[in-house]
């Protein structure tokens, strides 16, 4: 019935069709797209396992609304295929604004369909075993050869300890991803959703190596073996080996206590001993921040959870400044965060990424030329892990047990979700952009304080402007003086209140001036707006856009 209705709709509203006649040894892939009320937002690609695009449609807003498009392409019968579809606004093609849909068939047999998918979705088909986590090859310790890039393996350790997973013995640029879940996983080329990940940081050049993944006995993990931009053509050699249990001081009263250790090394050092290490020391890499900053834009759907998480300040078209956050531990002790079950108050379990985040990890702020903080920044929670060990440390921590080893660092690149500040409503002008780590100056889960909190701060002076077409841009400004708060404190937190008093007590949104922001103020807003008895001021204009 559904197919009949589509044919009738095609006759009524016009169908655009391209057909192919397939040769022996080929299969016919047909893609049908019925657009919704905003056809220009939809585009799709058909790719092979190497990432080459075999067919596509809708690029650059080419699709009309409420129209059926069909394209047919012949591909080799041996090709593993990926169909991906995108909606620019993030509300799919069904069912908010019309009843669009997509159908993909291979030689007349349906292999993928849908329409209600948010920003994007994808389907794999005509693929051999190992092409997704759902049909991963089951492995134990040993050496293996992945038949192609993006081959998946399932591994359940017999013993708890660290494992070495490496793909060093290849001439191509290999990558490794390790996940602790499969259902609902929308895997990507970066480290989204991983518990361990390596792309050139593991210690064997452009090849991938995770030398110390801490894995728990009896837990299933999924290992994905791939390459950078399809660089590995053909098979990829890799291996999986058990390093053994973590060995170290197991006495919690010792100053060199290792919470990961299950076997004692009989070498504990106690407070007062000159051999006691000093502590962890986190820094934000200023150069990485400066080299990664750029302006971008995006469309945000009305149901986008990132608005609720405060990493976006509104819906529709948004201007965002993207950047990377690279946090290093230059101290001589690990910054240990632990796992959510042991320290639940330190973690956020409900977020857009469906992965546990450490709450107090990073904060992004924007100050105007008078040192006043704009109400657009936010506190970002991450999965904190060892992604590079350029300072001489050894990889230990992942998303299941979080931390940063002394001599290692964690990197959240500019392409990841919420690695931005939303500047849509910011006026043109000079600003100081600040990226801080451990913004609340917390000790780690073992009570270890950082040696220095001043170096948790990285800043850039920037100019935000608009070109002749109204498009926003950002430029970095040299000679950026260290930020002083209104009391003259370096990197201080004192701010003028909404009445302009330094470290004052007036609260934004406190309409009845009872020094509380509560439901009474919300009621006052409603009454004053309805009676047209309120005008925007710094104290009542909560998003500083000049409107109530």
Question: What does this protein look like?
Answer:
By secondary structure, this protein is mostly beta strands. The chain is built from 4 helices and 34 strands. It has helices at 2-13, 286-292, 305-308, 519-530, and strands at 15-18, 26-34, 42-48, 53-57, 68-76, 81-87, 101-106, 109-114, 120-125, 137-139, 142-146, 151-155, 161-167, 174-179, 196-198, 208-215, 221-227, 236-244, 247-248, 263-264, 282-284, 294-300, 316-322, 325-329, 335-338, 347-348, 357-367, 378-382, 402-404, 409-412, 420-422, 429-437, 457-466, 472-477. Strands 26, 27, 28, 32, 33 and 34 form a 6-stranded antiparallel beta sheet that branches. The model is unreliable at 1-19 (pLDDT under 50).
Query: Main sheet, how many strands, which sense, barrel?
Result: 6 strands, antiparallel
Molecular shape: flat
Low-confidence stretches: 1-19
- Number of separate strands: 34
- Radius of gyration from the alpha-carbon trace, in angstroms: 27 Å
What share of the residues does DSSP label as strand, in percent? 35-45%
Mean pLDDT: 88
Task: Tell me the span between the first and last alpha carbons.
Answer: 51 Å
Estimated helix fraction: under 10%
- Number of H/I helices: 4
> How many domain modules?
4
Structural class call reads: mainly beta
What features would you highlight for this structure?
mainly beta, about 550 residues, Jelly Rolls, Immunoglobulin-like, single chain, 4 domains
């Amino acid at each position: 019935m559904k197919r009949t209705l589509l044919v009738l709709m095609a006759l009524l509203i016009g169908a655009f069709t391209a057909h192919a006649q397939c040769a022996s040894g080929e299969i016919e892939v047909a893609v049908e797209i019925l657009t919704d009320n905003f056809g220009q937002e939809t585009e799709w690609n058909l790719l092979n396992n190497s990432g080459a695009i075999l067919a596509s449609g809708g690029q650059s807003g080419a699709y009309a609304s409420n129209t059926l498009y069909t394209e047919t392409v012949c591909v080799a019968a041996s090709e593993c295929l990926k169909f991906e579809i995108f909606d620019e606004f993030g509300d799919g093609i069904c069912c908010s604004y019309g009843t669009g849909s997509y159908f993909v068939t291979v030689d007349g047999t349906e292999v993928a369909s849908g329409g209600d998918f948010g920003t994007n979705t994808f389907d794999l088909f005509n693929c051999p075993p190992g092409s997704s986590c759902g049909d991963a090859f089951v492995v134990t310790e040993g050496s293996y050869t992945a038949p192609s890039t993006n081959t998946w393996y399932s591994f359940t350790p017999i013993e708890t300890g660290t494992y070495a997973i490496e793909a060093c013995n290849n001439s191509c640029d290999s990558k490794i991803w390790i996940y602790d879940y499969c259902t609902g996983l929308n895997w990507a080329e970066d480290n989204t959703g991983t518990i361990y990940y390596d792309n050139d940081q593991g210690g064997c050049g452009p090849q991938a190596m995770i030398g110390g993944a801490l894995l728990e006995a009896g837990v299933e993990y999924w290992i994905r073996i791939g390459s950078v931009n399809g660089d590995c053509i053909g098979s990829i050699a890799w291996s999986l080996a058990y390093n053994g249990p973590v060995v170290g001081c197991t006495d919690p009263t010792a100053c060199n206590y290792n919470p990961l250790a299950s076997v004692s090394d009989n070498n504990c050092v106690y407070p007062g001993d000159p051999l006691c290490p000093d502590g962890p020391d986190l820094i934000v890499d200023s150069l990485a921040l400066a080299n990664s900053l750029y302006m971008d834009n995006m469309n945000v759907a009305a149901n986008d959870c990132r608005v609720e998480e405060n990493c976006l300040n509104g819906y529709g078209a948004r201007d965002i400044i993207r950047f990377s956050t690279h946090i290093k531990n230059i101290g001589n002790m690990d910054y240990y965060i632990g796992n959510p079950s042991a320290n639940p108050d330190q973690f956020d379990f409900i977020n857009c990424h469906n992965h546990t985040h450490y709450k107090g990890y990073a904060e992004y702020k924007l100050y105007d030329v008078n040192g006043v903080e704009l109400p657009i920044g936010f506190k970002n929670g991450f999965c904190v892990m060892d992604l590079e060990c350029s300072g001489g440390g050894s990889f230990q921590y992942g998303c299941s047990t979080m931390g940063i080893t002394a001599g290692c660092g964690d990197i959240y690149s500019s392409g990841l979700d919420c690695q931005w500040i939303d500047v849509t409503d910011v006026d043109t002008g000079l600003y100081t952009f600040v990226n801080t780590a451990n913004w609340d100056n917390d000790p780690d889960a073992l009570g270890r304080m950082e040696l220095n909190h001043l170096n948790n701060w990285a800043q850039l002076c920037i100019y935000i402007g608009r070109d002749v077409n109204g498009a926003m841009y950002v430029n970095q400004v040299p000679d950026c003086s260290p930020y002083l708060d209104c009391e003259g404190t370096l990197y201080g937190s004192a701010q003028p209140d909404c009445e302009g008093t330094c470290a004052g007590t007036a609260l934004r949104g406190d309409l009845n001036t009872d020094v509380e922001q509560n439901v009474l103020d919300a009621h006052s807003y409603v009454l004053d707006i309805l009676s047209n008895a309120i005008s925007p001021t710094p104290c009542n204009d909560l998003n500083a856009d000049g409107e109530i």
